[in-house]
Design brief:
The chain is α+β, with helices and mostly antiparallel strands. The protein has 3 helices and 3 strands; from the N terminus they run αααβββ. A hairpin with a 2-residue loop joins strand 1 and strand 2.
Length: 97
């Protein structure tokens, strides 16, 4: 009897609380045209795309350099140009020892 009551309660709650799902059909011609003309609306995404679309690649790296008896940590900026050249610039130099 107890099993019968729990099964009927489960069945009734499934009928009441489970929403009905209806299939929606889409027109394929409009779906393909919207994906072909898609431009992202998110400004962050557009900024990221521009960031990787540049022709000059800029990388900052640190290196340890000894000059005489002193040791320095330098932050160096490398710019990789489209023609294959590399420009190097020291951004900061702090003494380690």
């Amino acid at each position: 009897m107890n099993k019968f009551l729990t099964l009927t309660l489960l069945f009734i709650s499934a009928i009441i609380f489970v929403p009905s799902v209806e299939a929606k059909t889409t027109d394929l011609s409009t779906n393909n045209s919207t994906t072909a003309n898609y431009e992202p609306q998110n400004r962050y995404y557009q900024r990221q795309q521009r960031r990787y679309n540049r022709r000059v690649r800029v990388v900052n790296r640190t290196r340890i350099v000894r000059i005489g008896y002193r040791t320095y940590r330098e932050v160096v900026q490398y710019r990789y140009l489209p023609n294959g050249r590399v420009q190097t610039r020291v951004l900061s130099r702090t003494r380690v020892r």
